[in-house]
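Researcher: Here's the sequence for the chain we discussed earlier.
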Amino acid sequence: MNRPLRIAILVDPFTLHVKGGDHAPELARELLGRGHTVRGFGAPEGVIPRSGSDPSAAPIPEGAGLAGFAPDAIIAYQSLSPAAWLGARVARKRRVPLLLVEVGARSEESWRAHFLRRVGETLWGRFVRHHTSAVVALDPGAQERVLGHGFARERVSLVPPGVDLAAFRPGLASGLVLRHHIRGRVLLYLGWIGPGRGLDTLIHAFAKTVGQSSDWSLVLAGDGPARAELRALVDRLGIASCVHWVGTPRIEEVAGLMGSSTLFAVPGLDRSVRGQHIPKAMACGLPVLCSDKPVLNFLVEPEGSGLLVPGGDLGAWTDALRRAAMSPEVRKRWGRRGRELAEERLAWSHIAKQIEARLVAGAEELSAHAAHAAQRSRA
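Model: Thanks. This is the structure I predict for it:
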């Protein structure tokens, strides 16, 4: 890094908590720790950490506030969002780099989100593309999506989401497990219980293997429209006594739940499954059994941090679960390697360093263009 930057982070207040989750706050915290001056726009007060040297804490209109902050670099979330449009406007005016973070979308995305994306493409998509220095996609699905929006491939890179290695670590215990009287080894699924999640395959594979033993439990943590249908399947297979439905855990309960589990399963089938909990599982030293889908498999090292299994293939999932269950030493090795990968690739310090490098490169590119234009005008 050549010098500290004044970095503005722009989010859409309507989608902050579903599109990006903790990404913007965690990134801001790391950039502050690297010596930059940071201020967030679009989020409620206190959500995005900000520098104490910020000129004013009083509420002011977002456009005026951003201009008054006078950023050297801008980060905006979602490539077709109003935040991206505002970032592009200020980036053009101030001749500073704009970096977009593309989170992607889920299958249950609201009609409002679809509508706003279409509006964004129509009204300001071309303008944003022209004034963007770089795009960071958080998974291959988001990468494909932003390329489909017309961004130049050489400006789009894949940078996985970060994870808090202090909050998510091996050896944690769970009060949730105790309250639900869950015993023995735990095969954990965490997420939406709905179509495209491959849960029927997971349940069948569990019933054919460790579900026949009293020392394994299948924990389904989440809610969704397929819950009643899957409960009926569990009853038909005769494994209800070792299948636990714990609902959606509170955020602060997730690390303990993972720390108390033996295997983490992501049997997703469709493109909407983003595997957002895989980095947390790896940080907790929890081996991962994951569908071999592009949006998921970039996070899992086969035979290193777990196994990649063909999505929806009952035979393959049965074999993978049987193999993992019968090999405690292999599970330990996978867990250790998962933690190592999280420390090497997914620590927020590592993520912030990559984004910082792209901002600096963008600033240098703009400076070089300005110098070249000045030289041509003198000639």
